[in-house]
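User:
I would dearly like some help making sense of a protein record. Take your time, and here it is.
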Amino acid sequence: MWGLRYITLPVYVYMVYTIIRLVVEYACPVWHSGLHRYLSDTIQNGPEEGSYRCIYPGELYNEILEGTKLPTLAERRSKTSKEYFDKIKKDNHKLNHLLPNLRAVPYKMRTLHQNCVPTARTERFAF
């Protein structure tokens, strides 16, 4: 990015929060759950950490996060995915019909799975 040296700091900060973060987080409810740890680290070490180094030169990444109280991209992706799934669980959402049916459990269990576990229709998982 040869043109970044001519951009002032307020414009660069604006670009990071309005363009770069939005592009990296686009459709994250779809792909975040399948993201491996090393890919998440690559996203963090690439655009996020590099942007913070340009905005706050000479400071460590962890110190920048503590000082600015900004969540990491991984935290934002997790929060966005959870919020989107909570919206889907509501009856009036257009994707709600894709979720498995809720099951009624008459007794108290340590871990309560609210949805029915889908059965596999393959020979590999047949009992």
The chain has a mean pLDDT of 77. The CA atoms of residues 29 and 84 lie 7 Å apart. DSSP finds five helices and no strands in the chain. The helical segments are 9-24, 28-31, 37-55, 61-68, 73-88.
